Amino acid sequence: MSSNTKNLHFWWRVISSVLLLLPSFALNSDGILLLSFKYSILSDPLSVLESWNYNDATPCAWTGVTCTEIGNPGTPDMFRVTSLVLPNSQLLGSIVADLGMIQHLHHLDLSNNFFNGSLPSTIFTASEIEVLSLSNNVISGELPAELIGGLRSLQLLNLSDNALAGKVPPNLPALQNLTVVSLRSNYFSGSVPSGFSSVEVLDLSSNLLNGSLPLGFGGDSLRYLNLSYNKVSGRIPEEFAKRIPENATIDLSFNNLTGPIPESLPLLKQKNEFFEGNADLCGKLFEEPLLDSFHVVRSTQLAPFNSSPAI
User: Fold this and answer.
1) How is domain 24-157 classified at the CATH fold level?
2) Are 112 and 88 in contact (CB under 8 A)?
3) Cα distance between residue 25 and residue 112, in whole Å
């Protein structure tokens, strides 16, 4: 074998060895997806993404990123991204599809920024997301009813104070793990969905919801319901009132409700202001003190009233 051939063989082995080693030093797959998000940001005045560097093996030390040991030991994919939390960061840009492709993402909080545009479909098929908080942005578009069922692990959904429109997906209440929902201060229209049997906090205030109150609404877990500042009309159904737990806070103010307030303890325990702004609504709640209006229940049985705060 000639010296030139030996040299060529030697260098080929060196190059091959380097190529084999490269994957162990390259940024892992979750990091690449996060970098796609970084490159879509138009403005980062607080430099919160400055630590996001392609030369890192994992994104686990990046600002706002939390990892968990999930993947194959001894590889960059051993540590997978489970949380991205960057609220109040003055970020301007859009929510890219790659964020929804982070396989083990459990917690996404980009609230109080300047994100705009519509939400990508991948966000609604991220089956491991438990907390999705994108409030106080300028996100527009509709929530896709055909995809919302993919969020089967979702526990908290906060999309308040955006520019979302369309109907509240009718299958949203069917998400079994969902306990906190805030869609307030958007442009949602259509009727209030029935269900939400497992939800504890539901805030749909300051939208364009109309129609009557649903009969099959809520359940024993409900602590706070805010439907104020909508266009809900008609009477408050007895069936609706019966499904409200005794200690829940219910705000139905500034709608188009009519007729008498059902004489159920949960409704009679509410403050007057939670019914104001409904010109044709009437009932003993407005005429007499609470204990006089509900004569069936002894005063000693009334638990102290404590409001459950919204998100």
Assistant:
1) 3.80.10
2) yes
3) 35
